[in-house]
Design a protein that fits this description.
3 domains, mainly alpha, Transcription Elongation Factor S-II, Chain A, 4% strand, binds iron/sulfur cluster, 400 residues, 4Fe-4S, four-stranded antiparallel beta sheet, primosome
Length: 400
Amino acid sequence: MLDPFGKRAEGLIKEEFGDIITFLERIPSALSIDEPVAMIQLLLESENPPQELIEVDNLEELRDLFKFYALLGAASISPYGLEAEIVKRAALRLYSERIKASKKLNETMLPVTPVEKDELPHNDLNILERRMDRHLSPEEKEKLEIKYRIPLKSFLNLWTGSLKEVYIRNGHAYLRWETTLKMWEKAFERRFERAINLLYDYRDELPEFYHRLREKLEEIAEEYFKERGEMFKGTASPLRFDLFPPCVKEALKGVPAGMRNYAITVLLTSFLSYARICPNPPKKDVRIKDCINDLKIIEEEILPVIIEAGNRCKPPLFEDQPHEIKNIWYHLGFGLTDSPTMEDSGNSTWYFPPNCDKIQTNAPQLCKPDRYCRGIKNPLSYYLKRLYLEGKKKEGETGE
Ligand code: SF4
């Protein structure tokens, strides 16, 4: 299998299991946790992925797909944690090596078609492939060959460079092997991210297998990233207001009467508390007392922000609804009270931030998506994604 998101993989999953959730539910009965773990370890430890991972015969194809989706399911429990990062890196390496070995990119999710002989004008090819240059070695010539065409729309979706670097004709971009492979890598990363964001919603329904696999991956990832520090682990740290999603920034500005309770009590309270205390919860029914030891963080860093946002509402929320403070504590999981102690944590549910579709239905004025909202299902994932990207940026700067 060249691409776990390609048409062939999609067809196999649909044919054998119907949908992805059923597929994920069946994996634990066919696979032990040690198998995907061993695969990840092999990929991380070897300079080049071993041949046994590159060449998979047809009989083993489904099992091979099980391993990838087992890892994907485990990664989705913590979509921007180190676990997801390590799975993405290892999978990218594995499938990219398989594609290189097969010399085929038209069987992947990338909508490319091999270029036919005589499809392009001779003169253009002479220039593009430098056919008259006698100093080129056969390898250099091969690198210059125009191999694939891709519809312009799909191309523009993935391309970030200048259009001057690309040969475009009849609504298609024409690409060399290396460029096509890079585009596939980008498409793979995007699809991976979209998949774990979609599965994030189902993480509580996933069999225990995935939670145990995630723990194993966490151990491996911590070891692997020890050198790089904990830049994008997504653990509790001071709030980064600049990385908040647009809907939360809107709520912070204060909102009109009809939207106050939703924006402040439902969205802000849940978002700020999870973002500050437990940005990457391994399960949905986590309690605040599972994450912190005293209420200082809530009283000094979270409540003041909620109250200020409430005061910015028109009319100010807590002036005409002072009892709403009790409701804030209720949404934080302390029951209906205005003087809680840590022991009260768990008296009610610690509300998780509502998903984007809920916000769009209940308070559409808050949702003003920006480019980071693409593929995001929940404002907390947006925040984790931005933290993750910041971590990567810093990692790059340190590297340089
Ligand atoms: S798409 Fe989601 S995260 Fe982005 S602004 Fe809308 S509700 Fe917020």
